[in-house]
Batch of 4 targets.
Target 1
Amino acid sequence: MPLSLHHVPRALTWHPETRTLRIIDQRRLPEALVERELCTIDEVDDAIRTLAVRGAPAIGVAAALGLVASAAREAHPTRASIIAAIARLARSRPTAVNLPWAMARMRQVIDAGDADGALLLDALAAEAARILAEDIAMCEAIGRHGAALLADEACVLTHCNAGALATAGIGTALAPVYAAMAEGRRVEVIACETRPLLQGSRITAWELQRAGVPVTVCTDSMAASLMRDGRVDCVLVGADRIASNGDTANKIGTYSHAVAARHHALPFYVAAPSSSIDAAAPRGSAIVIEQRDADEVRRVGDRALAPADVRVHNPAFDVTPAELVTAIITDRGIRRPPFRFTA
Amino acid sequence: MPLSLHHVPRALTWHPETRTLRIIDQRRLPEALVERELCTIDEVDDAIRTLAVRGAPAIGVAAALGLVASAAREAHPTRASIIAAIARLARSRPTAVNLPWAMARMRQVIDAGDADGALLLDALAAEAARILAEDIAMCEAIGRHGAALLADEACVLTHCNAGALATAGIGTALAPVYAAMAEGRRVEVIACETRPLLQGSRITAWELQRAGVPVTVCTDSMAASLMRDGRVDCVLVGADRIASNGDTANKIGTYSHAVAARHHALPFYVAAPSSSIDAAAPRGSAIVIEQRDADEVRRVGDRALAPADVRVHNPAFDVTPAELVTAIITDRGIRRPPFRFTA
């Protein structure tokens, strides 16, 4: 039975009549499905900052819609108050490029005329709705292109969460899985847990299960032996940033799967919005890798997993060199090596 | 300054005058160093069963010494009560071969004559002390042979805990590190955390820190990118079982490090007691891999890391094929491929 895409959970929903933004509070996953309405700039800022909403595409969309939702609930929203809110939301997370990009688009609406009050709010709502629609369409295009790479019965290994819960649509790396399932094909997913923050076991496994896609969780260290046992048909991951030569920065651990895929002669696919391509970065070595807090590795909740003062290596990302990448799937289509992305 | 081996923690200590066995309670690591005295068969059985003492060599030694300690504290130990205790301890963990092996040696002491009372106890104490001394000597021999493979300044990546806390001596995979440090060489260790049970971050990091060896913890998924960055000189791991062709079963995740080491042209060493060689197993495919409880992956303490009912892949071990192994270090020396171990 084909999967209905209606069962794919949505990171956020927008109700244009009431200008209401609802999100799934991803901090509570997988233990509870809690939806929250974001009504004020404080709430939007807090949701982004604390990862209640996460994933570069999703937070850009959430910031744009949240700006409109909060302005619509203010007694007297002014150009100045909205401009201040834009500046604040643009800073709510440091890394993702989508956040300042979405806020720049909202700012352009303000700068484009001298509308004020309800007229300005209408123009901002229209722009936010366009950002939302573009994100949904981007996911669908990646799904359509990527599904063509999957066999009719495929076992896809993925890492981290580049799924519906990271976007406003059906995801990036998981979009081809959903698209193939919607065509009635049989796809199953192995979700690597993705230490240290466990987005794979917490979020990817939850959303796939919810959508009705067969999913198995494993630790990151099990991927290679699953490949050796013939249990994996391809690796399919997202990307945080792609250099113009195809080198791909993605969640730490991605590179180890790329090495293992090459060793076992399996395809390694990257799926990402074309906006993740950074044509200004000639190669992966130009991408700065953020080092994160040691306690992400040393603790889970209040449980010590390592000596409190032990030295820890905790980069947020690694870079997979283009020579290990079989194809890059974007909303614009499928690219194969040699990669040469231009602005 | 050379490391003094006196700082290497000991999984267990034996006081022959008082026939007293003390262990480090490894369930409490890394949060607390708690030593416990094991005085009764119930306490010995419980310590082995609940992993207070763990590591195949250590539990064989602990069972032999614990048998003597508990018999010495009984009012009237009989041949029958000691035989029953031996049978019970031999079953306290299912997998490790050292436990039934050590118990068989103690049983032979009983079967060898008709001594009873204090005389029998003396004979059992002497045999347990021999088992202890042999284990300490085995570790030292592995350390001596293995240290020759390390450069004067080396960064060793290891997985799980094949250290002092898994043996009665200075460990197996970590023995070459300790031996090289004791010679005044500069060795540092990268300890992969070893999901799901985290023996690397909890135990290996703790014992190395305690011993004064520089150690950095990383998640298992970071090993490949550390190799790519030139931060690793070799991989050195233990083994649960080695087939006669050199295929090596060890803690899950070992294989992914072997694949990554090969990709980066780094040596991959296995260190283990010669008793871990199973000449009856012609190759790794003959080794049965235990599947463990899904909640080891789905939960840490009372914290859910994945949906409660999600399917999980959780093998205890993986098998690294001999062609990825640069050398096997045992107490008998260093072997290089092609491996052909005989009984």
Note: DSSP finds ten helices and 17 strands in chain B.
Target 2
Amino acid sequence: MVRVGVNGYGTIGKRVALAVLKQEDMSLVGIVKKTPDYAALQARRLGINVYAPTEDDVRKFEDSGVKVGGTLRDLLESVDVIVDATPGGMGEQYRKLYDQFKVKQVFQGGEKPEIAEVSFNSLCNYGEALGRRSARVVSCNTTGLLRIICTLNAHSPVEKVRAVVIRRAADPKEVKRGPVNSIELDPPKAPSHHAKDVKTVIPWVKITTVAVAVPTTLMHVHHVTLKVSKKLAKSDVIAILEAAPRVMLINAERTGITGTAGIVEASRDLRPRYDVPELVVFEDSLNVEDDEISLFQAVHQESIVVPENIDVIRALIPLELDPTKSIEKTDRALELNKKLW
Amino acid sequence: MVRVGVNGYGTIGKRVALAVLKQEDMSLVGIVKKTPDYAALQARRLGINVYAPTEDDVRKFEDSGVKVGGTLRDLLESVDVIVDATPGGMGEQYRKLYDQFKVKQVFQGGEKPEIAEVSFNSLCNYGEALGRRSARVVSCNTTGLLRIICTLNAHSPVEKVRAVVIRRAADPKEVKRGPVNSIELDPPKAPSHHAKDVKTVIPWVKITTVAVAVPTTLMHVHHVTLKVSKKLAKSDVIAILEAAPRVMLINAERTGITGTAGIVEASRDLRPRYDVPELVVFEDSLNVEDDEISLFQAVHQESIVVPENIDVIRALIPLELDPTKSIEKTDRALELNKKLW
């Protein structure tokens, strides 16, 4: 059993912690939280050991009656791997402490690529993370792009990718973010950072990306065009995506799901927190013209990186040498069945 | 003086009517409105003659104390051109009546292309509308696409166009439309109708379009990629767009305008109803790679087709044979100066 700690219990941290709990080959030693709020109480209710960053924070927790196991240092003493899910940029500040305790380290996409030995996606470069000290799981949009690129690339080498990223304005809980009524160029200057970020995992790909932010909280949507070197029929592409892990095909005509609200509504009836860690590809939007495949896909920003955070732990230890086997274990434990019906 | 009537006084109708009032070579005989609401009172306040569709409607107006000049038939007897700005699909029902009165006819993009002898855009095919009985001014998104295509095509033949259309959910007054919190594939099946609609004006172009609707009311945004046959430098493209009519270049870095809210906020300080009939191209987003030009552009759905509605009247009569001269007259009268500062 690999002993795992999670530093940060926000949107990503809590999902990774709960995902670790479900793995047969991992144990969750505890999580680190800064504030004794409702989420700390929920963690305790689930029997999760809560730690605080410093002694001062420990006292805050004690004052509000939330039992804590100690400080981050106490946690680091008893884990093999720490998953850093602190707010973007803070991982860099914690890195030295992690080094000091000689624990393996998983960072998130909000950190600069240089923070870790390798930027990671399970479908693209699992092997490169084997036995490393540290890895960075790239962000949600980048993970979505990598899933489609590496899935298709395994069948027909991808020569060029263009993507228009239509970002959700804010996560449901981020009440201070916007826009509320605008389509914002994010950034105004092309290309967006996503192209560069994809290349941290697969440097060989030729890719351009642009992005806007729009007033919605549920999911991102991408329009992706992939030029492939070996022509595929539309039916080939559908068969490939149906067989691929972590890609969910949705047919709008058959299901009545025509956008992100429909995906989330269907998921609310089936899944905790309506999480959709699969990349959702809209089958109706799939178009093949000569050597170009284009499609709309949707990315659930809160959960898509969770399975990758689990796989990367197996790679770093290394607990499993074969990416396919790790992916299977993770997806079985998380009940990712690629459908919402 | 060409005598113009406008049937319908909604989003497009009122703007076209007010634009006609500003032209030196046109007179507005009157507008047709179905309901005696605040907009009817505003029209009266501006000294515009209001007509009602039928005798029954006339009585409704009289009952609520709004003076009317008669019915649609009365109006049709005294105009050379009728601009139909009734809700999409209703123009088809009115067409026979217009024919009966032997008036020239302008329809909007909500009607099927077959309704008129020609689908129209000032920058693309003004000449084809000269002396015709009827023309259809294509819709806002199609007009935006045609503006950029025909502007660039005049300098370097456009071989292929791809566009991702990010549509506003509803106009500001359409309180019953959505989505409120979703990115909706609109339509789920690629391509969207915009490609076909562009071809009603320039059948020679190779174009694919896809579209989503997002929860905002201000403007549409397009990401457009144009493959051109003669390589242009980025500076060439900027010079072409700066010199072109009805295209406004906005530099985000210099102006602080980074999206549709910024455009509208700047326009609110300068222009009635914050109308922006120019196609807005975001200069920072402009990218030239080999023979491909890509950019983000914004379309103010409520006003972009207004100048085209004026030009098409001059073409139908025909009052002006040279598109450049008509465009100049229209834009001077409407004070389209291509900037918001």
Note: Chain B has two domains: 2-138+305-334, 140-299.
Target 3
Amino acid sequence: METLRWENGTLHLLDQTLLPHEVSYLALNDYREVIRAIRRLSVRGAPAIGAAAAYAVVLAAMEAAQGDAEDFAARLQKAAEEIGAARPTAVNLRWAVARQHAVVERLAGEPPEKVVAELVREAAAIFAADVAANRTMGAYGAALLPREARVLTHCNAGALATCGYGTALGVIRAAHAAGKIRMVYADETRPLLQGARLTVFELQQDGIPVTLITDSMAGYLMAKKGLDAVIVGADRIAANGDVANKIGTYSLAVLARHHGVPFYVTAPFSTIDPEAPDGAGIPIEERDADEVTHLGGVPVAPAGTAVWNPAFDVTPHNLVTAIITERGVYYPPYRFGA
Amino acid sequence: METLRWENGTLHLLDQTLLPHEVSYLALNDYREVIRAIRRLSVRGAPAIGAAAAYAVVLAAMEAAQGDAEDFAARLQKAAEEIGAARPTAVNLRWAVARQHAVVERLAGEPPEKVVAELVREAAAIFAADVAANRTMGAYGAALLPREARVLTHCNAGALATCGYGTALGVIRAAHAAGKIRMVYADETRPLLQGARLTVFELQQDGIPVTLITDSMAGYLMAKKGLDAVIVGADRIAANGDVANKIGTYSLAVLARHHGVPFYVTAPFSTIDPEAPDGAGIPIEERDADEVTHLGGVPVAPAGTAVWNPAFDVTPHNLVTAIITERGVYYPPYRFGA
């Protein structure tokens, strides 16, 4: 199942809010629609957001190319800034927009049609490189797991969160292909249930054994059933190895440490933000109370309930056993280089 | 709001599955209906289950009294065993049935009407003693909290889980009355959302400040906002201080230890099971997959999803800062006496 596909000037985006009940694609021709799709989580997962943003810049360039050629670059720049601000935490969004910006800079003065064509090529390159990176990470990560591995993952860091294969689920896919997976436990991942809706769905489709638990069961799972690894993705990694990822990741890291379970983070190198020296420099998005007080539009809490709803948390580097990237596996103390 | 009320031979039981949207009482005249209500969690919370079970024995005795007087005790005994087996983890259920059994033994040979009358009196005594115990625990627990306390609670150990006032929420009520509560954070408590549905509801009604979070946010809450105490109830406490309570309690205890936050358990002395030397001796109920895969009847996971759904977990005594009972506050090493 494709997360996104570019075809004849249209971005086809799998609407992940409808999964697993409905497989439906949005056909987007306006970069503003892509921003809305990112905000409402039709597309989510840091690498997938990055690729969607790269194509959003293409759509913005196509629109800017309709107008006065003189203002092309300025109009495009303004749109690119809007795209880069769609959500605050995942750095891949900003990174993809910056890659497209570099294309525009390189081609300054060239006709808009040529710039558009190059932006399409760059977006496709970002897309293809992401899939390749995931396969590489999968191989690196699978090598770290024992045979008969019982692993726990949180949220969805799968094919659906990327351009294909997945980061954390890429490791699980590669380990399963090598006959090493006994059971994958999937945290349901409240509030938006990406674990229950997306991770279980992906693994079921691939015939990988998966058991769903609520987020509150992870600690007891480790104590009672035993666990060989926690494997998660990342939305942004600071220069010191602090990891911003889906809310609940930090709790898992503490629990893993308490139980002596390795805690692995899997993410493409583009997730590392050299401008954030540590986790304190990573902005954490707080989302609407409705995500917690309602489920599928149905209220589960009394009217007027006050809510704290951070979408992400920060796991300090000292709780992270290793960070798996396409450039290799990093261990503490984390030094990523350029 | 009353959790349960006995009136003219009928047990009126607040149907907690409908809260907070609907306040509705079941009128039960058959002990089998009480068992069903306990199983489907219309009444839940160890002390409330205990009181409901005591009245279920009354209903069973009323039924047994209709038949042959000779078989009265045998028929009642059989029904009491069914009642005691309604759910496995909360020991208060067994304890209340044992208290009623002692009444029947004491009055062996007396006319059934007299036994029924004494069972009603005993059930009322259990009910009244629970409310009094909660107020005592509230005072003991409140004394342990600092001023401007930020506390986190899990599930619902409130008036609704007891015969009134609550255990963990009793401590919070007493602390609030003493002007010591800055904020109560309530874990929503998946799968059945007793935190969102019941705890938020109870605290709102009392004007106590409460903020709802998903279970996965507790760790980040401790790290980011700071917390002064975790306060939970218990379904069974082993002789060594190991605590069985709602699934997710164990994760909170590990997180509290990591962050240096005191972890308090509040429960009436009847929750202590001298026959369970440690937590390994406490049976943990596993409930239907539907509770996790569905929410309000709506599926949130793909069809055929495998689930692990333990309703409780066990927190080892070494993670418990203190156990607050109506007989006083116990500290490690836990020795409860008789």
Note: Chain A touches chain B through 56 residues (CB under 8 Å).
Target 4
Amino acid sequence: MWGSARSLRRSVGWIAQVLLVFVPGWAEAREDRMVRTPAEYEQALDRSRPGDRIVLANGEWRDFQVLFNAEGEDGRPITLTAQTPGAVILTGQSNLRMAGRHLVVSNLVFRDGWSPTGEVVSFRQNRQNRAVNSRVTGIVIDGFSKPDRSESDNWVAMYGFGNRFDHSHLIGKTNAGTTLVVVRDEEQGLENRHLIDHNWFGPRPPLGSNGGETLRIGTSHDSESSSFTTVTANWFERTNGEVEIISNKSGQNTYRGNVFFEAEGALTLRHGDGAVVEDNVFIGNGRPNTGGIRVINRNNTVRNNYMEGLRGEGFASALTILYGVPNSPLNRYVQVQNAVIENNTLVDVAEVALGEGMDTERSAPPIDSRFARNLIVNRDGSDPVRMTGDLGGIAFEGNVVSAHATILPGAESRTVALSRGRGGLMVPQGVDGIGARRDLAFVGRNAVGVSWYPKDAERAALDSGQTIAVAAEEDALTLAARTAAPGDRLVLAAGDHVVNAVLAVETPLTVEGPSDGEARILFSRPTLFEIGRHGSLKLANLSISGAEAPDAAGNAVVRAGSDAFGYRLELSGVRVSDLTVNRAFDLIAAEPGSLASRIVLSAVTAEGLTGSVLRASAETRDLGTYNAEVVEVTGSTFRRIAGPAIDLYRGGTDESTFGPRLTVSGTTFQGVGQGGAVPAAIRLIGVQRAELTANRFTESGPVRFERRVGAPVLIWRDNQADADPFLFSNVEAQ
Amino acid sequence: MWGSARSLRRSVGWIAQVLLVFVPGWAEAREDRMVRTPAEYEQALDRSRPGDRIVLANGEWRDFQVLFNAEGEDGRPITLTAQTPGAVILTGQSNLRMAGRHLVVSNLVFRDGWSPTGEVVSFRQNRQNRAVNSRVTGIVIDGFSKPDRSESDNWVAMYGFGNRFDHSHLIGKTNAGTTLVVVRDEEQGLENRHLIDHNWFGPRPPLGSNGGETLRIGTSHDSESSSFTTVTANWFERTNGEVEIISNKSGQNTYRGNVFFEAEGALTLRHGDGAVVEDNVFIGNGRPNTGGIRVINRNNTVRNNYMEGLRGEGFASALTILYGVPNSPLNRYVQVQNAVIENNTLVDVAEVALGEGMDTERSAPPIDSRFARNLIVNRDGSDPVRMTGDLGGIAFEGNVVSAHATILPGAESRTVALSRGRGGLMVPQGVDGIGARRDLAFVGRNAVGVSWYPKDAERAALDSGQTIAVAAEEDALTLAARTAAPGDRLVLAAGDHVVNAVLAVETPLTVEGPSDGEARILFSRPTLFEIGRHGSLKLANLSISGAEAPDAAGNAVVRAGSDAFGYRLELSGVRVSDLTVNRAFDLIAAEPGSLASRIVLSAVTAEGLTGSVLRASAETRDLGTYNAEVVEVTGSTFRRIAGPAIDLYRGGTDESTFGPRLTVSGTTFQGVGQGGAVPAAIRLIGVQRAELTANRFTESGPVRFERRVGAPVLIWRDNQADADPFLFSNVEAQ
């Protein structure tokens, strides 16, 4: 069309212009207006008529808050697009608001900045003016996150009705708030009938608190009405923001033919009735917390879905049917009624949780429901089914479970042979009519998102860069760290390395000792390494002394700044001593707001600290936030440590996160955490899973483990202690 | 000299160059090398010989870390200076290090950035290489503070010996660490014999923790040795960083002829013996916490000083003699012995504290000391002298106190007539030989610092800008706030103002309602106003509703971000309601790291909050930091508030700050702070002074007041309560 319109103009010349002005109804007339500045954009917008296109010139558009309000016509939309897909980049404080009807926006990229408002792409201008019958297609939003992780926004907010959001990339949201949300209210009409399809919801790291849903439709408030929105043929790839990947909160929505690839959490039918969840494929590849579908409420149908290799449990099981709250308020859990769960195939999943969540509040069992012709095959012969409470309200019919003894009522227990089908999914032999249909296919990764923007861009990894030798001279390491490229490895010469600056770690950085001799780092600032927004740090085979640190309370060898997010920190073969000049001198200190994805200490010797080896307990507001997702300590020795050697805190009572998780093995605690108001060698408050194996505690405080929410796990195995080893507190938080 | 050397070169041409190279000893030969880039600077430095000057070209030098290492000769220093004083600005990540001997640096400005190391101007290159017999003169360091307030640095660090720092401006340090420090160690020799003179130590706001000294000489570790440093003819103007303006921590230093103008805290003889403090002038002008001289240790002389209008008490009294610790460790308090305190004049001071600080640890009284011929005149007839413990070790001789009945042993009690002398100081009549000498003069403000940089640059104040009308339209206020200039006043039209962005307050901003009708603000983001680094905010005569705020825990109407420092927040005639959508919804929330200089609430009505009216309790690490210096609440009404209406916290046991301070009067608390783990209508932990007058408490939790350090004051007067009104806990912190 564009091509033909241009030819037309070229041949007709000024007459065409006149025609455009005086015969606006002429079907073939269309203007393309290339604009180079926000002012030109405004002018072009003023002149646009149905069928016209505004074309943003290639380049960076910085701090451009686009307001696209116009009135197109059915079949003749007004379009806002890029000169070249992928070559128009909105950066800085930018966003897009749309209002009107029959609008199309396409081929824009949001990157290197964040929206100054609560939305990046919004299908409304303000409360009064929304976009309807409009489409956003081929949009990329890449890491366009507010730097303060606790400050929430929604990247895409769909208002109005009859809108479509498709073929877009949404990657790397790190702050709170949904990636895509459908906002409903009575004024606009509650029947949205939106279409959300062929998008690539790319990796999103765990938020470390509630508010990390990738997709939400509605809120509890209006959840008794129906949205009629369809979510189809999308990929959700490592969308690990929180326990709900999708939070369905309205009636009559359809989730069909989507792929959930290594995604932590579950498609959760949180509020609202009558959802259809079918033909979806969940591939966990054995990664922790990968889940399937969680059923709550009435009249939901879950059929012909395929799950494989999902390791999630509890609320993030492959299939979960929840207990409800009798006469539930809108914001709690409506009893499951009339659920139909049939013909799903589950291969090698960790758990199918039927009757999950039963407690004094959630006391209403599922009723009037059917669980039929599902196929559950674990190739190791285990039975993932876990049943709780009264499940008499579920009719179990014709299910097949591969375990030798299955607890599923009436299920046939037998060995089922599997083979990979053409699409890569497992196809069972000899159980016709059981499990998902044999020709179930799924949308390809290449068919979602846009073709012109990469799906596999990765940050530099630790040790992926150059190796750089650092002489044992004062501030040689300071200079080397300042000029290191992402992934570089600084190898220290034997001898003393005095550092007189805080080394800002803004990209992955490795600092290693020599293969012969010992490198020792001394530092004169309150902090040796400070991890920033995109930093990760590995320290290996070296020694660190706090003897030259300033005489101030609260020093730390490694500090995670308040914007450090999703970072890795590894210490291996590191000897730390003399952190004693003043009180509260830590080896690792996490500031409020920071969140580590993984902290690993192996063969670390820490002796003489007035603080903690790891202090990740800064989030004391009890809003469900915490400072470390996974902590692993092996083969280490901690001696003469005033505080708890490991101090992890997660307050709050929401059930939306998986962390913190801790393993400690083969580690010696001697003279640790004996003083203070609450003596503790290890203090774990609100930690979801702690596994302590083959450790030795002498002359140390106890291990404290306090539940705050959920069903936390403490595994205590083969440890030795010269005193009463641990305290378990099951007190509910206020 | 410069002019003549230039003339010489001009006339002699290349022959002069040759002479310079081959006859370096020639007394008149001198090179001036103008440099325009860091690389040119390096080259010039390499070529510099005794007597030469390197001249930085006018302009901004960004991210320039100057290393000035060279060897001058006595009388023929090597100089680094500016093309034009005040026209060479070092910005960004810049600093200066010097090493060698006979160096001079002059006329540079550090601004708009901060040092990446622990020092801005350092008299050393590294541990091995220091500057000696060198001078820094005419330097300006203006607001060159690290943005993270808790990250400390020293602006000027004097190492070596025989150095001089003079005629410089040091203004507006906001992060931790001394403004100027003398660093001593045995390797360099402990006798520094530095001269610090004619500097203008300009305003420094309270740091809100230990570490805010303006000047420190030495540390406790080496305090038994002598520095022989002289501090003379400097101005300390509103240097309010902490309780010690000067922290003397070495022996045999002299403080002579300095002016302390409206400066909070005291010149403190913290460690080391044999200091002479004479001819200094302290002018308080009645400002709170303005102090004089605090005496600890042995052989200190305090004579001929003049104090007027000082309001400090306790450790910040006009004169304090401290109790000591028997056999004190180096870092505690050595018993006062052989102190000579004579011929000082004190006019209208709040307190003279003799025997201050006596407790179970500090149990050693002053001995072998003399307190003689001092004149203490309070024109209101009051007696500021406060005596504690056993003062038999002080010989009191010939003192005159104006009070009708004085408690000072042997002092003459009489009325003394005063008149202003020529220099502006009060001169007494008829008490010859008593008080400071009559011709005591002090250095003029114009004679300190540099002449080419202003001393009175002030930030824009609230209400100092334009008045801007804002229509009652969605996001009209958003736009107006974004484009407001510092000090502007936004006057809202009557009606609803919906705000869909977090309004960043980076400069002083006023938002007011109309004189007729009511303006109501509704907001859809988790925060309405977020105060940043240089922000202040005033809200007047308007209404704010939280009804449209997002369904998330931890929302706030006003949030002080972690970099908000020294800000003012005033709410007057503001009605706040419906902060209830989720829990922990506050009216004012201070983030960790933030510090308000003053928060004033007058005629505020707050009804229906799930959080607090003011939550300034984020610093839970107990390092002596806190979030609000002064809080004043008058004539307000707080109803149905879940948390404590006012929640202030200051942990830690150091005695280095004056805040937090609170006054609440004429305010009604109804249904406030009844729930939670620890019910409280007002929760004050570690607050130094709280005055509650004529308030009314009904159906509310108690007022909790817990001591953490010092001798906090709680004044409870004319309040009404329908239950046991308050709890006082005197438990020492751990």
Note: Chain B touches chain A at residues 116-118, 126-128, 150-152, 176, 210-211, 219, 474-475, 478, 482, 498, 500-502, 524-527, 550-554, 561-562, 584, 591-593, 618, 620-621, 623-624, 652, 676-677, 734 (CB under 8 Å).
